[in-house]
What does this fold into?
Amino acid sequence: MSRNRLIYLPLGGAGEIGMNAYVYGYGEPGAERLIVVDLGVTFPDMDTTPGVNLIMPDISFLRENADRIEAIFITHAHEDHVGAVGRLWPDLRAPVYARAFTGHLAQIKMEEAGQDPSNVEIVGAWPQKVEAGPFKVSFLPISHSIPESAGLVIDAPAGRIVHTGDFKLDAEPGVGEPWDEALWREATAGRVRALVCDSTNVFSHHPGRSEAGLKQPIETFVAGAPHMVVATTFASNVARVKTLAEAGQAAGRSVCLLGRAMRRMIEAAVTTGIVDDFPTTVTPEDARDIPRENLMLIVTGSQGERRAASAQLARGKYLGLQMAEGDSFLFSSKTIPGNERGVIRIMNAFSEIGVDVVSEDTRYHVSGHANRPDLEKMHAVVDPECVIPMHGEHMHLREHAKLAEAGGRASLVVVNGAVCDLTRAVPHVVEHVEADRVYLDGDILIGALDGIVRDRIRLALNGHVIVNVILDGDEPLGDPWVEIMGLPETGKSRAALVDVLEADLGQFLMRAKSKTLRDDETLEDELKRIARKTAQAEIGKKPEVTVVVSRLE
Amino acid sequence: MSRNRLIYLPLGGAGEIGMNAYVYGYGEPGAERLIVVDLGVTFPDMDTTPGVNLIMPDISFLRENADRIEAIFITHAHEDHVGAVGRLWPDLRAPVYARAFTGHLAQIKMEEAGQDPSNVEIVGAWPQKVEAGPFKVSFLPISHSIPESAGLVIDAPAGRIVHTGDFKLDAEPGVGEPWDEALWREATAGRVRALVCDSTNVFSHHPGRSEAGLKQPIETFVAGAPHMVVATTFASNVARVKTLAEAGQAAGRSVCLLGRAMRRMIEAAVTTGIVDDFPTTVTPEDARDIPRENLMLIVTGSQGERRAASAQLARGKYLGLQMAEGDSFLFSSKTIPGNERGVIRIMNAFSEIGVDVVSEDTRYHVSGHANRPDLEKMHAVVDPECVIPMHGEHMHLREHAKLAEAGGRASLVVVNGAVCDLTRAVPHVVEHVEADRVYLDGDILIGALDGIVRDRIRLALNGHVIVNVILDGDEPLGDPWVEIMGLPETGKSRAALVDVLEADLGQFLMRAKSKTLRDDETLEDELKRIARKTAQAEIGKKPEVTVVVSRLE
It folds into this structure.
């Protein structure tokens, strides 16, 4: 019995903000019974993942130990926590537990991936407990930028873990449960082995502000706008969408929601009883006939996503609606690092139309994550023996660990793939498992290290030359044939690049020895080398080269 | 004579921050004599310009009217003002005028592009004047984040234009001339037709801060660091580099400059007499032997550039020097929007080593551009009849125009390619000329609209399928041969993607009519269509397809 250990293993979210996936285990080393907390996605970018649809954690470890998995718990319905549940579930095949709103959205994810949504079981909040092997787990409500976010109280024979999930301390979050210190003190009373804690805003030194503080400024903004008002925020921030809609209503405007995600979230909130007083909205068809000074649109695309409603409006008409000079556009949001270019592109497009844009204005947005003083508060309320920072890039985790240590608690940076033994007096990383990323590319899951996306990046940087030669034994039939893609048509010699390539490759073939011509590999290598050398001389670039050798025999 | 007009035509920099290139003209419409102010570059990114080396303004208009160009003036030595002068000069072949430091660097640009550096003529500051056709132009010193920045006082028969160049109002810029209000009042006294004015910081509402205010905080930071200190800033910010070096010296540390641009800039400043008291530095070789608590490195790469010294140090050893736990790294800089990912990548890499990183801290950085109150001050000092905003994205230009109008002055947003007639009582856009971008791609200049880079982006997003068929008349010789690049090897059918493609394409060839097989274009279209359809079914992606048809006859 004394050999049993309690482990924590992040597979995503520890060393990045995105694709959260955390594993807890209890039992004999290598045979621990496991639970999974969250299965999220992260989003691709052109720099590192061009053409990829979604990025998910590599759950090889879980797949190989699927028989040890007792359950999956989803803390809240943000994509970086629930987005991969449908795609990855077939590898895990364990029951999924979530509260009503989160579970509703998790069920949709299951359906979209062709899985049975009844594998998602809706459970109530603390003090209700879910038994999962050696664990007893309960959902402890906490405020965040989406309704019904929850921390988890995880009881194992070796001690209690409190997993915060994403959270902020907001006494008036508008929609969803407020931060309830008394409840948290009661539910986490007694010895807590470890607090596994959100680190996102550890570098924000001021105390967090309440969602409630936005109501008046947003109302004033909407009331003061002379023409049409358009506002964007994260669709999942139901409280914010409601505040925006109510401001429109208060200003006597008809409110129209644009964007699939926006409508889906509000529907989910209404269906699950999270919201029962959302203002009446009009359809885009009806909105077209309403005088623009009486209209407010609430749209998707706060991060400048190219296909979202905000970007569509920046490019022209969307569902018959169009921006015009004198309209106002409010980003009730913060631009996530890396999304700046997309947001700025939209702002400039609106500027060209004559739309007044407000962005990055703290009067109209608050963060959904706990700032540094609020993290200290959480440490104090839960009063754990150690703090394990999660949900952050490495710099956030490291800073959070320093903060905990400054408060007199043990702490440790545990990154994706590191198995941390929480049974020891001081938590300790004892093993490492594979924990990279997989890409959903079209309909196929590919490994980040498969080289497929690396090849696409090389094509984007270097262009592509295709060399085609036909041989009959060691006899070239005709000249080599070259096609190029993504390269200049003419180079320094002022002749067509393909002609220069064909000439150089043809010369080589004429002089090549029979042995070279009969060996595919040598021939390909040589043709590649010559093509790259010629391209370098002609255009100053070394392209990717594909050689196709066809043999007639 | 009354038909003569005074025109302003931005070819770059008006609607973007980067690749500045402005044209002024005076004379009969369509036959104005021209001067060019600045010839800068802008930098590529993976989203829109993968594989491109540099982006420059499309100067087709100037090339087609090269006989009308009297002179080129360079206001200062930032890459976005001087970077294209060497590459574009052969199309213009007019004398280049600049002050000593700027001219020195412009001459290097000419040499690097294989042009005669003696085409760059060094001139003194106001009241010295350069005569250029109908224009008299003088360089009016002003403070900026590089030494020797200058505004231009441009006198034409139809009136005076003041072109600010990039500027801030700094009475103590450290290196380079301070803002001298009396000088500016004197030099711009009398009727000024138009102020063409930097707009970069129009959204910054607080008054600008002085470079001098950084000295004490930086000294305190360097003195308090326990181990090695590494600081990065723009190499061209000679004042900042000197402040950093002096702080190192004051703390008893040996100072080592890392990165080619860093050394080149300091050499240029010393050569041209801008700086005569730069602290002694040590070479990287010597630095290796100095105890790290006595060492300070000043390095390139404040924007996270992958090849710069900061990124090299984040990845491991660079010139024998290496970061270690307890070292300090200071970003004495601001991250330019769009560069966040690169900077964050470095910060996390340092976090993993245990280096303490300070970034985005206003104690250690001030902007080089005039904030909103300083723009108002400039309007008041020059007191022009109209203000034409330049050096900004569209939203900056629009906001700056509003600011000028709120101050009671006429203003107009003039974007790249718009010809503005400044002779009229109210400035007016009268024509448009082509003003896109050209890309330096390897060694070749290509047009932004040539489709070359668009093809590379498509390859990155969609992958590439190469289909090879050999025909003898209307008789396929063997099966089609398929190669893929950047695509998953297996799809939904669990067979190799190339096998499935070859099977489907082979079936088509077997059944195809003789007419189709004899017509290259139809055959290619059909094979492409089938390859894309099969790929869509197998992997959920429609790749780029290149078809190579070889005919034996």
Summary: The radius of gyration of chain A is 28 Å.
